[in-house]
Amino acid sequence: MLVRNILEGVVVFHETLHEVNSKKLDGVIFKVDFQKAYDKVKWSFLQQALRMKGFDEIWRKHIESFVQKVSVVMNVNDDIGHYFQTHKGLRQGDPMSPILFNVVADMLAILI
């Protein structure tokens, strides 16, 4: 189920509780807090999820290069400095982050 905003989530939760209570059904409510979850994703899991979703090897290699290592250089007054590498390339806030996080969240939903 896709919840578009936080208020819609509250409505869906209330309707689910009402349905379970009115039909006297047993149920379990599972709440997932995604705060800071992106920073805890194992990149090997992301690669496996992309493979299972049918992403081509070329795409997976590109994504791996984004998330594993990034070369950074400083440009000050058209003077380019030395390149240095960071350990973690992609971070929360990068344009690619929401797409990859949705892939991981979808795999979590499938596992549950």
Automatic annotation (TrEMBL):
Domain Reverse transcriptase positions: 1-112
Q: Which InterPro entries match?
A: DNA/RNA_pol_sf, RT_dom
Q: Name one Pfam family in it.
A: RVT_1
Q: What is this protein called?
A: Reverse transcriptase domain-containing protein
Q: Which species is the source of this protein?
A: Hordeum vulgare subsp. vulgare (Domesticated barley)
